[in-house]
Each structure stands twice: as C-alpha cells, then as structure tokens.
Amino acid sequence: MIVAEKISDVRKNVAEWKKQGLTVGLVPTMGYLHEGHASLVDKAVSECDKVVVSDFVNPTQFGPNEDLAKYPRDFESDCKLLEAHGATLVFHPSVEEMYPENAATFVEILNDMPKKLCGKTRPIHFRGVCTVVSKLFNIVTPDKAFFGMKDAQQLSIIKKMVRDMSYGIEIIGCPIIREDDGLAKSSRNTYLSPEERMAATILSKAVFEGKKMVENGEKNVQTILDAQTKIIESEPLAKIDYVSAVDFSTLEDAAEVKPDTLFAMAVYIGTTRLIDNFLA
Ligand code: AMP
Predict the structure, then answer these.
(1) What pairing do the DSSP bridges indicate for beta strands 261-269 and 238-247?
(2) I need a labelling partner for 227 at 20 to 30 A (CA). Which of 42, 59, 135, 148 fits?
(3) How far is the CA of 33 from the centre of ligand 1 (A)?
(4) Is the Cβ atom of 44 under 6 angstroms away from ligand 1?
(5) Phi, psi of 47 (to 5 degrees)
(6) Could you say which DSSP state residue 188 is in?
(7) What is the pLDDT of residues 66-122, one digit of tens each?
C-alpha cells in the first residue's frame, strides 16, 4: 500500500492509474479506523480498480469547543487495517498540506440542510465537511466515493453538493456497521467509560424499536419519535440532543412515514455525543 502525505504524490499515482484506464474509488475518513470504515473500503475495493483512503482529522469541521485536540489517532494501526482490506493508497496529509496559510475559500450549502439535525449544535460542521470533501474530490478525482449511512446527514449533504457543483462522481451510501450489542461503531466510542459504554446501547435500542414500528405499518412519525424518546429517557446517563424524522434527500421535517424518511438522533452519554439513525 502506498502512503502519501503530499497532494502531488496522490495526483501522480492517480494520473498513472487513469492512463492505464483504471477506475478510482475514494473513502474519506478521519482515521482511528474500525470495521465501519473497513466496510466502506471493502465496498470500494469490490467496485473500483484502485482505492484511495484519506486519513485526516479535518480541523475545519470541529467547533471551538469540540473534541479536535483529543480526537483519537493511531495511523500505524490504520495502515494495518487498510492494507488487510486491500486499499491501494492512504492519503495522510498534514493540516498545512490541506490548508495552505491564509486559506479563505470554503464550500458551503446555503439552504437549511446544514442547519438541521446535527447542524443545530454544530453550526460550522457541514461547511468544514463540504470543504474538505470537495478538496479530496479535486485531489483524487475519483469515479466513486463511499460514505457511511452512520453519518446520514453528511451523506445527504454530500449528495446535494455533488449535484449542485456538477462533480462527475458517483456517491455510494453504505450501511451502518454495529457492535454485537447494537451500538453503531464509532471512533468516539473510545471516549466512553465502561458504565457509559453499557448505557450507549440505548441509542440502538431506540433505533430498532422505531424500525420495528415502521415495519409493523406505523405511519405517524410523531408516534415513533415519542416511543424512541421514551426509551432514551429511561437511561439515566443519556441526554437527548435531538430525536427527529426528516426526508433523507431534502432534510425537511417529515410528518408521515414515507420510503425515504430518515429517523435520526443525537444523544449525549455523559459528555460524549453519539449519533444513530435508520431509514424507513
Ligand atoms: P469518520 O472517520 O468518522 O469521519 O468516518 C468516515 C466514514 O466512515 C464516513 O463516511 C462514516 O459515515 C463512515 N462510518 C463511520 N462509522 C461507521 C459505521 N459504524 N458503519 C458504517 N460506516 C461508518
């Protein structure tokens, strides 16, 4: 596996592959990789000749009081996982490489999509995400890019950005990978104490209950949200940020369950903010 720290090195490799007529997949990550990330790499490997994985904790998507400094990092272990899953190249740039001094250009969606759900408590988050993903698209010029449904709002926003900005890149959404007890895998799960780790299963319990209600034919969104809220409130260590239902492609509030209704939640377990969701 090629390890590239410089944009120019990525470009050189990609140019060589394209000359050979090979297709390129991109999996953007912030590192500290787990089986959720690995599932994206597997999918990319199955659909593309060459797979680039970016491993970069992007400072512009963290708010001033968020966990940028303490975000977990282990590049050596990331490389082992990526190599085992058949990635071709890992792009591991420095902050200076990605953001030249005095960089002042951002990519931002100016409708309400970045203000919904996680955007309420993370107002600059999706501007940072769109900016870094846009830069990665320009650097890697992939045919396909792979994103997890774990971050459903991010996926919806990236799809919108790709449509609006005419990126000729196919965006592939991949299912949420979970621990055996249901907790969605996340690099942030490492923040949880053993007691909090047990409490954190309350998110997936609420997700599974909501899913069951939809499968049983419940059409009233509020009935489902009320049931999910009640489950989460039964856990003393949990504090709800939001439990909401929106249309997956527009992120507009949903009143009635439709095929693309996204039931999403963010819940604090202690000081750790976790997200989970399901699509009706
Ligand atoms: P992150 O490193 O957290 O920025 O995530 C990088 C990519 O991996 C994003 O597209 C996430 O949605 C995806 N991802 C993270 N956790 C999971 C998971 N448990 N299952 C599937 N995809 C995931």
Answers:
(1) antiparallel
(2) 148
(3) 9
(4) no
(5) -110, -15
(6) G
(7) 999 999 999 999 999 999 999 999 999 999 999 999 999 999 999 999 999 999 999
